[in-house]
Amino acid sequence: MAASARVAELRRLLDDANYRYFVLDDPAIPDVEYDRLMRELLELEAAHPELQSPDSPSRRVGGQVRREFAEVAHAIPMLSLGNAFSEGEVADFVRRIREATGEDAPEFSVEPKIDGLAISLRYEHGVFVRGATRGDGSTGEDVSANLRTIKAIPLHLRFPTEAGQGSLFAPAPPAVLEVRGEVYMPRSAFEAYNQRARESGGKVLANPRNGAAGSLRQLDPAVSASRPLAFFAYALGEVDGWSPPPRHSQVLQALRGFGFPVSPEVDTASGLDGLLCYFDRIGRKRESLDYDIDGVVYKLDRFDQQRELGFVSRAPRWAIAHKFPAQEQLTTVEAIDIQIGRTGAATPVARLAPVNVAGVVVTNATLHNADQIARLDVRVGDTVIVRRAGDVIPEVVRVLPEHRPAAAEPWRMPTHCPVCSSELLREEGEAVWRCSGGLTCAAQSKEALIHFASRRAMDIEGLGDRIIEDLVDLGFVESPADLYRLTLDDMLRMKQLSDQRDGTTPETVKSGKIATRWAENLLDAIAVSRKASLPRFLFALGILHIGESTAKTLAQWLGRLELIRHSPEAVLIALPDVGREVAHSIATFFEQDGNQQVLDALLAAGIVFADERSPSPQLHERLTLAHLLGQLPVDKLGGKSAQRLAEVYPTLDALVAAGRDNWVIAGLSVAAADNLNACLADPTMRERVRRDEQAMRRVLAEAPQDAVQGGPLVGKTFVLTGSLSSLTRDEAGARLEALGAKVSGSVSKKTSVVVAGEAAGSKLDKANELGVEIWDEAKLLELLSRYG
Ligand code: IVH
């Protein structure tokens, strides 16, 4: 292509991108692509001076002014910064400065480059009078009303009471002080905003920068005010009636004194090494900051030196932005596959043409779920923007529909699992489709096994993802129970097959020995895991919605696996922090035939629990007929009246035998009595309550009762902290609870006793502070032994 044609094309592309970015707030291409096109244009224009033109996008700084806001002319233009993308480019910058200043290690103010919107704030005689966007650099938009809603922006200048760094302007504030900086949306505010938007079905923001831009350009300041923005100052504009100190870093200090927020990360550094060291430091900190940054800015610190260097057309020669590698890149979608997770969740994944994003080659990006694909309208063949931030899984941010091939079809969720061909189903109101194959699905069983063996679950050392994949793929293992049937022979054969398949490892005597030792160790680790702890085992089963803490609750309250697995939803829901959804998920898991078989097989394989015990005596308070009545769909039957009724008629039989009229005599309202009567007249409903009642009794029959009435520790709250040597904290907690005590995780004024083990930390300090009684382990053991 002739240079002139390419220049014309680049100008069109850049103009278009500028318009979308600055005017519509709807960027079409990622910044990195924009920078690349701009560089190409600048290079071509430099090489072909005859092609230069005053209206080229290379000649201006930003977009156009919007019609809706008043225009504001910037007395001192708001400039842009040159970019450096490599250490080499920073070295060139430092060299130019060294040559111009004659200094060996010139000093710089070094600052994070905040990814928000540049703003100029004008104060006259100490009072905020106007704020404007950068616009095209010489004319911006008056967004004062919206800026006033930002709490970080002072409406009056503060008056420093002590002289400092030349910043003193007493007795009067400067006639004019323009402060420039960046308005941004803190990440935490962005997350919270989107969370609320998702819950209320509102529009989510694409990223914090768009959030800030969108808010500032709201014509209604009330809308702007509902989106929490913040501000960091980084430069001066017009100044009259104040002599700024001689260095930029001192000006920032003075700005703090005037009441402006300045990023706490700003610093000074000298020479190339100093700059690169800062770049590294901020790069490492980047993810932990509450605001997005896309690089750092180096500014020559001394104003006299800045003046010597001056400006090129768009930017100062004395400053440069050192950009982080772009986190967003363009690529194309080659396929959309479905990945099946441990709980059967079917996650669509985009297979991408490989692209380097911030130093990592990305070939896959999550599309989250079918709804997300529909929202983005991603199709195979599409050009998309992928984003990778920190440890986050790469994701597709947006599609560029203008690059869509004509034949691209809308994507549809498949109806069947790509691994086991079972149907994919989705529960009402859920975004996630799940494979209905359960553990018969190889994908699910692999993930389930990986979870089962993992550190926080059964902790089987050496049984990693690769081995599990081989064991499943080569047909040795389907469910966790199969692990316990593996023989040395199986393991060696599996290893041999997998080596053959991968074309590795020659068969030598030595490698044979190594393989045997490896297999023996692994089998040992599997065997050791037979002696399990109940909460870990429950967690290891991978029941949907059951994390470690719910697993602990189940074990602590119900005590034995047999009770847990046969408890209906109505009983489970009585446990603390177990809601309807969780109870449903547990009960459904244990009801499924496949899961029952796996569980029986695991028990038959010799899994035993060291920590099974009686159910908690406190269940007597929770598992009453009133609790079951509370689960029924009966209008007007409040918790209190159900309680009163169950006190008079504590069993279903007694209740039914008494009949509606007696319920009213016992204090039930007529309406509630009628509704309850109608409900229990339904035979299936009554049968359900009867079954639940029986299950409840089975549990209660095992729960010690006297402890509840006469429990020596009723009304006492214990907190256990530090490590105990003769029993675990869980065991100690369970025994205290069995004696009627409440065991809590945090110390407060209501705590009766803190038991402090080895290396107790902040909880012990807090106990001391509040004057709470403190025991050591010996004292605890003495108490426990007293009550057997
Ligand atoms: S100084 C004459 N300092 O970057 C130099 N700019 O590409 C004026 N930015 O429009 C800018 N953080 O929106 C400066 N610490 C910082 C900055 C910063 C972010 C933005 C600002 C400016 C753009 C220049």
What would you say this structure looks like, in words?
With 788 residues, the chain is of the alpha+beta class. It is built from 32 helices and 24 strands. The radius of gyration is 34 Å and the shape is globular. 2-(butylsulfanyl)adenosine is lined by residues 79-81, 111, 113-114, 118, 134, 182, 234-235, 297, 316, 319, 321.
Defining key terms:
5-stranded mixed sheet, globular, binds 2-(butylsulfanyl)adenosine, 5-stranded antiparallel sheet, 788 residues, 32 helices, alpha+beta
> Major sheet, described briefly?
5 strands, mixed
Shape: globular
Residue-averaged pLDDT, rounded? 88
Radius of gyration: 34 Å
Helix residue percentage? 40-55%
Number of helical segments with 4 or more residues: 32
Structural class: alpha+beta
- Give the end-to-end Cα distance, rounded to a whole number of Å: 91 Å
Question: Topology of this protein?
Answer:
Layout: H1 3-23, H2 31-47, E1 71-73, E2 83-84, H3 87-101, E3 107-114, E4 117-124, E5 127-133, E6 139-141, H4 144-148, E7 176-184, H5 187-200, H6 208-216, H7 221-225, E8 230-240, H8 248-258, E9 267-270, H9 271-285, E10 293-300, H10 303-309, E11 319-323, E12 328-340, E13 346-357, E14 360-366, H11 370-376, E15 383-387, E16 395-399, E17 424-425, E18 434-435, H12 442-453, H13 465-473, H14 480-483, H15 488-502, H16 509-528, E19 531-532, H17 534-540, H18 548-558, H19 561-565, H20 569-572, H21 580-591, H22 593-604, E20 608-609, H23 619-622, H24 625-631, H25 639-648, H26 652-665, H27 670-681, H28 683-702, H29 706-710, E21 717-721, H30 729-738, E22 742-744, E23 753-756, H31 762-770, E24 773-775, H32 777-786
Parallel strand pairs: 2-11, 19-20, 21-22, 21-23, 23-24
Antiparallel strand pairs: 1-6, 3-9, 3-10, 4-5, 4-7, 7-8, 10-11, 12-13, 12-15, 13-14, 15-16, 17-18
Bound molecules: 2-(butylsulfanyl)adenosine.
Residues 79-81, 111, 113-114, 118, 134, 182, 234-235, 297, 316, 319, 321 line the site of 2-(butylsulfanyl)adenosine (IVH).
